[in-house]
Amino acid sequence: MDYVVLLKQVPDLAEELEIDSAGTGLDREWMSYVASEWDEYALEEALQLREANGGTVTCLALGVATGDVDEVLATCLARGADRVVKVGSFDESPDSHAAAAAFAEALEPIPHDLILTGVQAIDDLDGQVGPLLAARRGMPHLSVVTHIAVSGDGRSVTAHQEYAGGVVGEFEVDLPAVLGVQSSREAPRYAPVSRVRQLLKTATIETVDVAGGGPRSGLVVESMSVPETGAAAEMIAGNAQAIAERIAELLAERGITGGAAR
């Protein structure tokens, strides 16, 4: 089995994020980047499947100027991937349509039975790279996946898909296929920093040029703003009667109801 994992760099939410001077995006000059959390789940699931069924794990990431894609790919190797590939060269992270087109082109010479990607990314919450890639490659797609099992003959996988209210559906998907991973069966394994630094110096990170064309999503961000800061919450103390009376007062002040608690 040949497993392929698609990864994306996203802003590190542990850092302070600021809006740029144009007011239409984030100020990326000093921004730190990390691999998308859901993509890390996809990688862990691919590694688990390889350990159970054999095969290879290949990781692909777009060559975006912001961030450090080489470090992302070296981390994949440190976690156990067999092969890593940097796809194209982009000044900034492309939208889902352009990303799917680039990945579809890069996959032409790369063996792939099962393609895994994160269900979405924190910087767009779009979740469309998987479906768009599947459409371009003529492959079935299933998203919000929480469990994957390969059939005995290796021709299909069984996957669980989450729905609202705790409902889970089970689907059998013919291979090759694209799956959007919501979570992995185990937490993503740790990659020692020393090992990542060593691989940055010694490992082979392949590069693939892509045309980078194709239709774009057409979405335009007109403005961004920091959420307004409201007043601090009032903590109501006392016994049940005192708390009820204070709640009644607050409701009356806002014209929601009148009278006092009894």
Question: What can you tell me about this protein's structure?
Answer:
This protein is α/β, with parallel strands linked by helices and 262 residues long. The protein has 2 domains: 2-208, Rossmann fold; 233-262, no CATH class. 27% of the residues lie in helices and 25% in strands. It contains 6 helices and 11 strands. The chain has helices spanning 37-53, 69-79, 96-106, 129-137, 193-202, 240-253, and strands at residues 2-7, 9-11, 33-35, 56-64, 83-90, 114-118, 141-150, 156-162, 168-174, 177-181, 206-208. The strands form 2 sheets. A 9-stranded mixed sheet has the order 9-8-7-10-6-1-4-5-11, sandwiched between helices. Strands 2-3 form a two-stranded antiparallel sheet. Helix 2 (69-79) links the parallel strand 4 and strand 5 (83-90). Helix 2 (69-79) crosses helix 5. The longest helix has 17 residues, at 37-53. The radius of gyration is 23 Å and the shape is globular. The N and C termini lie far apart (70 Å).
Map the helices and strands:
Blueprint lengths: L1 E6 L1 E3 L21 E3 L1 H17 L2 E9 L4 H11 L3 E8 L5 H11 L7 E5 L10 H9 L3 E10 L5 E7 L5 E7 L2 E5 L11 H10 L3 E3 L31 H14 L9
Parallel strand pairs: 1-4, 1-6, 4-5, 5-11, 6-10, 7-10
Antiparallel strand pairs: 2-3, 7-8, 8-9
Helix pairs in contact: 2-5, 3-4
